[in-house]
């Protein structure tokens, strides 16, 4: 029967060239940020079993990886420091000779203006109890005492030369305190990428191994609850009012609706964190031959872009650039 169906969307899918031409969403290397871990006192990079292909860097291997990130045209790197010793107050975070602070200086010296250098601003890597802040005598994470430390931590990162600090502890008021601390010490040029809508998630599992976390229990009294979308938008608005330059939704895949709602609601750039567990699931299934790794990782990143992310933090950043070039 001629003339039916009248509408044939398949015409635009017939050839690779047609599909490329009508693609609604694009992914560029400059939209990708590579999270990297650096271990104090490490003499060789150490593999992270639950994140195949990701390592805890030495100071030297971190610099080399940062240089490769410049070569790949990535947008930036997000640095996590792993101290040799931890204490209840996370004091390694404030020490100018502490691992994260020296790593920031190392990477900034290595990459110059080649990419944006960002630092995860949180206490969980530095505290012996593994929480994102200091505890009061009842074991409750003490919001306001933690804020004071975050302000000082921001100054340490700024002194080390960071471009953007990224507070990830979900303390109330953290963005405002950090903004004021930076401005008071003539670091008005240092920006804030806020982990704004951050959910208590099982998908952070492999990250615990990546940062040698000693956390007992969970983060449910400060990270958000899975059922809440509007609350994610509200947290994001609050962060912007407090001075966030870029906001972030985390994790990405189980929260694409939150990402979309945030993108609709605000005018600042929106980032999403394709987290450790999202990485590990694909890598593990691919190792078993159950999923096509490259197709799955590109599909993942494209879906996060399509949902509204302008910037994606992903352990696949270097792989993605290779695949985009191919
Ligand atoms: C906190 C922080 C975490 C991640 C990034 N920053 C852990 C947490 O909040 O529990 C997780 C990243 C990932 O899983 O890839 N410093």
From TrEMBL:
Binding site for 5-aminolevulinate 1: 208, 219
Binding site for Mg(2+): 235
Uppermost EC category: lyase
Source organism superkingdom: Bacteria
Pathway: Porphyrin-containing compound metabolism; protoporphyrin-IX biosynthesis; coproporphyrinogen-III from 5-aminolevulinate: step 1/4
UniProt xrefs under Gene3D superfamilies: Aldolase class I (3.20.20.70)
Keyword Magnesium set for record: yes
GO MF annotations, alphabetized: porphobilinogen synthase activity; zinc ion binding
Functional note: Catalyzes an early step in the biosynthesis of tetrapyrroles. Binds two molecules of 5-aminolevulinate per subunit, each at a distinct site, and catalyzes their condensation to form porphobilinogen.
GO biological process, any: protoporphyrinogen IX biosynthetic process
InterPro entries linked to this entry: ALAD (IPR001731), ALAD_AS (IPR030656), Aldolase_TIM (IPR013785)
Sequence similarity: Belongs to the ALAD family.
Name of the protein this chain belongs to: Delta-aminolevulinic acid dehydratase
Pfam families: ALAD
GO cellular component, one term: cytosol
EC number assigned by the record: 4.2.1.24
NCBIfam families: PRK09283.1 (NF006762)
PROSITE patterns, A to Z: D_ALA_DEHYDRATASE (PS00169)
Assembly and oligomerization: Homooctamer.
Annotated source species: Nocardioides aurantiacus
Active-site residues, record numbering mapped to chain: 198 (schiff-base intermediate with substrate), 250 (schiff-base intermediate with substrate)
């Amino acid at each position: 029967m001629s003339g039916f169906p009248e509408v044939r969307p398949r015409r635009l899918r017939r050839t690779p060239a047609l599909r490329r031409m009508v693609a609604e969403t694009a992914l560029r290397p400059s939209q990708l940020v590579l999270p990297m871990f650096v271990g104090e006192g490490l003499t060789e990079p150490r593999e992270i079993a639950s994140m195949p292909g990701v390592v805890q860097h030495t100071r030297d291997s971190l610099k080399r990886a940062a240089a490769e990130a410049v070569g790949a045209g990535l947008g930036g790197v997000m640095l996590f420091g792993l101290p040799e010793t931890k204490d209840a107050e996370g004091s390694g975070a404030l020490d100018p000779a502490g691992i994260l602070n020296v790593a920031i200086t190392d990477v900034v010296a290595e990459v110059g203006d080649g990419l944006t250098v960002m630092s995860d601003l949180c206490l969980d890597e530095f505290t012996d109890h593994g929480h994102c802040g200091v505890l009061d005598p009842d074991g409750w994470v003490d919001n306001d005492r933690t804020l004071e430390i975050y302000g000082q931590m921001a100054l340490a990162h700024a002194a080390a030369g960071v471009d953007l600090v990224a507070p990830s502890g979900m303390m109330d008021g953290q963005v405002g305190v950090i903004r004021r601390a930076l401005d008071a010490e003539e670091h008005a040029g240092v920006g804030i990428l806020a982990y704004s809508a951050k959910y208590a998630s099982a998908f952070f599992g492999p990250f615990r191994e990546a940062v040698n976390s000693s956390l007992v229990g969970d983060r449910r009294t400060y990270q958000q609850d899975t059922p809440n979308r509007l609350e994610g938008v509200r947290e994001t608005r609050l962060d912007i009012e407090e001075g966030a330059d870029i906001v972030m939704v985390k994790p990405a895949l189980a929260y694409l609706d939150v990402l979309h709602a945030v993108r609709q609601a605000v005018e600042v750039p929106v980032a999403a964190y394709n987290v450790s567990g999202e990485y590990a699931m694909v890598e593990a299934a691919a190792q078993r031959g159950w999923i096509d790794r490259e197709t799955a990782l590109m599909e993942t990143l494209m879906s996060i872009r399509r949902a509204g992310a302008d910037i994606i933090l992903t352990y696949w950043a270097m792989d993605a650039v290779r695949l985009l070039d191919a």
